[in-house]
Known about the structure:
CATH superfamily: P-loop containing nucleotide triphosphate hydrolases
CATH architecture: 3-Layer(aba) Sandwich
CATH topology: Rossmann fold
Number of helices: 12
Bound molecules: adenosine-5'-triphosphate, iron/sulfur cluster, magnesium ion
Largest sheet: 9 strands, mixed
Number of strands: 13
Strand order of the largest sheet: 6-7-8-3-9-10-12-11-13
Shape: globular
Strand content: 15-25%
CATH class: Alpha Beta
Helix content: 25-40%
Amino acid sequence: MINNLLSVKNLSLQFDIDGKQAYALRNVSFDIAQGEMVGIVGESGSGKSVLCFSLLKLLYKNGKITNGQVLLHGDDLLLKSENEMTKIRGEKISMIFQDPFLALNPAITIGHQITWIIMKHENIKKSEAKKRATQILSSVGIHDIDAVMKSYSHQFSGGQRQRIVIAMALCCSPELLLADEPTTALDVTTQAQVLSLISNLKKQRNMAVMLVTHDFGVVANTCDKIIVMYGGLIMEQATAKELFAAPKNPYTKALLECILSLESKREQQIEQINGDPPDILKLGDFCPFYKRCKYAMNICTRKIPPIFQISPTHSSACWLLDERAPVISDFKAVARKEADVN
Ligand SMILES: Nc1ncnc2c1ncn2[C@@H]1O[C@H](COP(=O)(O)OP(=O)(O)OP(=O)(O)O)[C@@H](O)[C@H]1O
Ligand code: SF4
Ligand SMILES: [Mg+2]
């Protein structure tokens, strides 16, 4: 694809839960350009982490990708062998997790872990790998590097640990960093520091970042593009400017309204919309948001909304954008179905 680093096309994933099929991702499609920062937002259970894992082909035993492509420079990762994926993970796409403890081995020194990763991916001598490890630790703002290299993960604060995890993720210079809620376990000040570190490293390295977060404020300040997920579907995607100026999906609007009403509270989370998020075992051919949507129409209960294109960079899956829908000023139908656009 033109200038796209990653192109995800119609990705669908099911879990087998006690013999029943649950839909965790449904026809998910989006692109990430080189050096672009993309924010993924959505309530708990909307499929954000499953999406990150599936891009790396890291799936639970009961998970199965049933459809789609994950094209990295046009090359479908879903067709790669496990050996090929082991090389791609870290070298091309790296991931940092919400809990830094998960990524660090408590019994091995930090220096040894980072040096080992570098040596595993690159054919260089231990002394050279060690030198690279110290450089990468310094680039994430770690001081007293000699002492850090000889220390174990439990000896650090949460913020320091997350910096070390970021260093590990970056040590083979990936083109894409998947950051799955990398700051939720941290206090507010440290959260801001770690996010600004990721944002600076992204600029220095011209690296693409997919940032999963619960915090719309974070994506507003840092991301070029925002993807809103719900019930395994992409409900809306747009540039940050378009999304905040004129959201075209009732779910996005509800999320934004929750934030506005909670503006004064710094610890705001977005799970504030009335009603519960969907049970993935009970999803079907209907809009997953219809039970909570104040605009829901008959069609919403019978068919998954198609994707309507509002601008070249803005799309929304909502029946209100169909030309036959009643005109509601906020969602006025200036859109065309994706199929009509192409
Ligand atoms: N191995 C699994 N087996 C069955 N269901 C799973 C499995 N892993 C995840 N799920 C379900 O898939 C759905 C999406 O999960 P996911 O972890 O991607 O949500 P999320 O958007 O990352 O939420 P959070 O914000 O809480 O991290 C959830 O309903 C979750 O319960
Ligand atoms: S498709 Fe219907 S239920 Fe879904 S968000 Fe749009 S109006 Fe609401
Ligand atoms: Mg998650």
